[in-house]
Design a protein that fits this description.
heterodimer, A: mainly alpha, B: alpha/beta, six-stranded mixed β-sheet
Chain lengths: ~500, ~260
């Protein structure tokens, strides 16, 4: 039965259909049997991992204390808040069909609530593949109480969207449309990574400081991780199937969602209209002589676009910030890991990831691909100019850690330079061979275009990291990851028919 | 003579399409033969989905035809696309710009791509910016520009390397009267200076006023071609407008198909 036109359910079906198509687009180009095999294999694999986790839990129960469960629940909730903030901000600026909806006789709350529920569904879709296998396996092995993970997951997504929405609209109102997008992206990344960052900061603090911090915040820590703490309710409900806790958490999340979305719907609708035409047009250039050459023109254009893209600069900055504490942790490791061995794989991974991000921006995120295609420039020449444009920022960003490494060991630095260059080249080539056209603003979301590419990209980075560590020990094993890199690149090489398509 | 009579020329045609065919799920361009002489202003008209944009995209080198030949000033555009691209410009209906570049930086970029000598490119850019009244905005990033402003910047980009063949796909869509006038004047001046223009438009008044010859395509086939007078004689009557002719040609074709 179809919902009545103009009803809330009708609108929700419309929004969910759009979200579903976006999700299904990840398998675009795959045949139906290949999609079925991949999805079935993925589901089976995830259930096997969940089964393994529960088995480990039976062997070493001390790692699965209520506090660790509560910590995991906080991590999931923070991540969902970040998704709500990003989704809300995206709806504000990209608007797409919201203009049509707000111009229609439908009340604003219907459109906003429906869009907020679509964001909730997206957050759920990202977490569900990890939590549903756990719920199913747990229910099979230990009882139906584990099935309470289903309503908890939905409640967390609702609560996360509510808080994210409040933050998105709040930022827009307080700091204005021009800055809100950038700030909300940074804030979302910090919220999503807060847990990891917090653990890392704690790990790098000197021991004396840690004692002081524990003394100052011990009360807060106890109230967060105590079995009776409010944040523990979700984990308690999940672990014991506590019906009262489950009902309380679900109701609280639902009320928070409805209150936030209904109260803010008018402000949200006005904000989407304000967001239109709020481009950052304040920058002014100056007269300077033109320079010659198509290669130089392409490189200069890419430089200018990269430097002026504040979102990109912020995202890359965060990518680096996240890895810095890992380096410090490894250097302070009690296992006596030599500093060079600690730093080198990190630099290699960072080089691979930076090259992947920047090559996606310059190749797939090209704003005017047809302009380049109609210019008298060979495709290979254009590609080489673009890749040379990204080499410079990668080198500049990695100069400081490379210098640090060179001061520790010049040999290690030389090895790292070679492996880092190879790692960067391999991920850049992957993006060059398989462009996935998209808006450059969606750089961080590019992996939702193709999970296969995401796995290949991360796989290459990790393999190069393993290879450099093995090579430090002068082990022949280092050839194995390098051969695997070769195999991945060979698998992803451009097919002759794809080359023939390019004019 | 008002300068819009067909151009007679012994030199190689500015553009020659021979049996050009392109099929997607259905046939978009069907055995199209078309010849445009140097210095002509040619308007390619047709209903939505007739194959106009696909034709221009094949000439611009953005897609390969399934069959047929494309020759631009004697250069085989399929065998030597780079040589053909050197003397052509393509302006689609949606301006191809970079939001974070200023108009002047954009023109420098285009001139670089087409390997125009820097001093010459700078001079031409200054002229185009003045003609299109972009002076006050030449150092402002394009991201805040209106559609009309963006279209003017894109047009300046298409002209900065002084192409011999200019392809324009719906260049006046969404422009206000003042900007549309500037664009039309600039195009007319380019033809006067010797450039060849092929343009698609749904604004029939533009085709009637600016072009030497008009081609009408439907279902990927050329169903009518000639000067305005020739089209009137064949499909309308004295005093009939291009709109009358256009409707008559496309209706005739529909009738033929039905038969």
């Amino acid at each position: 039965m179809k919902p009545a036109s103009g009803s809330f359910m009708w609108l929700l079906a419309h929004d969910l259909r759009l979200s579903w198509r976006q999700l299904a687009a990840m398998f675009a180009g795959w045949s139906a049997p290949a999609t079925i095999v991949a999805v079935t294999g993925g589901i089976t694999g995830l259930h096997a991992i969940a089964w393994g986790l529960l088995s480990i839990r039976a062997i070493v129960p001390e790692y699965f204390t209520p506090a660790s469960l509560a910590t995991a629940a906080i991590g999931v909730l923070l991540w969902m808040i970040a998704q709500g903030l990003l989704g809300g901000t995206r709806s504000l600026y990209e608007r797409s069909d919201l203009d049509v909806l707000f111009a229609s006789p439908l009340p604003a709350w219907k459109a906003v609530t429906s869009r907020a529920l679509a964001i909730t569904a997206s957050s759920l879709a990202a977490v569900a593949p990890l939590l549903i296998p756990l719920a199913n396996t747990g229910a099979y092995r230990e009882g139906a109480a584990w099935l309470s993970l289903y309503p908890i997951m939905i409640s967390m997504a609702l609560a996360g969207t509510a808080v994210g929405f409040i933050l998105a609209v709040g930022l827009f109102s307080v700091i204005g449309p021009r800055r809100a997008r950038l700030v909300s992206q940074i804030l979302a990344a910090i919220i999503a990574g807060a847990f990891v960052l917090g653990v890392q900061v704690a790990a790098i603090l000197p021991r004396a400081w840690m004692v002081k911090v524990s003394a100052a915040f011990g009360g807060v820590q106890r109230s967060l991780f105590d079995e009776q703490a409010p944040l523990w309710i979700a984990a308690q409900a999940a672990a014991h199937g506590d019906a009262a806790a489950l009902l309380g958490f679900t109701l609280a999340s639902l009320i928070a969602f409805l209150l936030a979305v209904y109260t803010l719907s008018g402000t949200f609708a006005r904000a989407t209209l304000t967001a239109a035409g709020s481009a950052d047009a304040a920058w002014k250039g100056k007269d300077r002589p033109f320079r010659a050459g198509s290669h130089r023109a392409l490189r200069t254009k890419e430089f200018r676009l990269l430097i002026r893209d504040h979102n990109l600069v912020a995202q890359i900055g965060l990518q680096i910030i996240y890895t810095l504490p890992i380096a410090v942790m490894l250097l302070r490791s009690p296992q006596d890991i030599p500093p060079a061995i600690a730093l080198a794989p990190l630099i290699v991974v960072l080089a691979a990831q930076l090259a992947a991000s920047l090559s996606w921006i310059t190749v797939s995120g090209e704003d005017a691909p047809e302009l380049i295609a109609t210019a008298p420039v060979q495709p290979a020449q254009a590609a080489s100019a673009k890749l040379s444009a990204i080499a410079v920022p990668v080198c500049v960003i990695l100069a400081a850690p490379m210098l640090t490494l060179a001061m520790i060991s010049t040999t290690a630095a030389a090895y790292t330079f070679c492996f880092g260059a190879a790692a960067a080249a391999s991920t850049a080539l992957l993006n060059l061979w398989h462009p996935m056209p998209g808006n450059r603003r969606g750089m961080l979301r590019r992996h939702s275009q193709s999970k296969v590419m995401a796995i290949a990209e991360h796989g290459l980075a990790l393999l190069w990291a393993v290879a450099i560590v093995a090579s430090f020990f002068e082990s022949k094993v280092s050839m194995v990851p390098i051969l695997l890199v070769g195999l991945i690149l060979w698998t992803f090489r451009p097919k002759p028919e794809a080359r023939a398509k390019a004019v | 003579m008002d300068g819009r009579e067909p151009v007679a020329n012994a030199a190689p045609a500015a553009l020659q399409l021979s049996g050009v065919t392109k099929t997607f799920t259905k046939r978009a361009v069907d055995n199209l033969n078309l010849t445009i002489q140097p210095g002509e202003f040619y308007a390619l008209l047709g209903p939505n989905g007739a194959g106009k944009t696909t034709t221009l995209r094949m000439i611009a080198g953005l897609m390969k035809p399934d069959a047929g030949r494309i020759s631009i000033f004697g250069i085989d555009a399929l065998a030597d696309p780079i040589a053909a691209k050197r003397i052509t410009a393509w302006l689609p209906d949606e301006p191809m710009l970079y939001d974070k570049l200023t108009p002047l930086e954009y023109l420098e970029f285009i001139a670089g791509l087409w390997e125009v000598e820097p001093a010459l490119a700078q001079k031409r850019s200054a002229e185009l910016i003045e003609i299109l009244e972009l002076g006050p905005h030449r150092h402002t990033r394009c991201e805040g520009f209106s559609r009309g402003m963006k279209q003017k910047v894109a047009l300046a980009g298409a002209l900065v390397h002084e192409p011999r063949l200019i392809m324009l796909d719906e260049p006046l869509t969404g422009l206000d009267a003042a900007i549309a006038r500037q664009v039309k004047d600039l195009l007319a001046a380019r033809v006067k200076a010797g450039a060849t223009i092929i343009l698609t438009t749904h604004i029939l008044e533009v085709a009637e006023r600016l072009s030497n010859r008009i081609g009408i395509v439907k279902n990927g086939r050329l169903v009518g071609e000639g000067t305005m007078d020739e089209l009137r004689t064949r499909f309308g009557g004295s005093g009939s407008s291009l709109e009358d002719v256009f409707l008559a040609v496309t209706a005739n074709d529909t009738a033929k198909e039905a038969a």
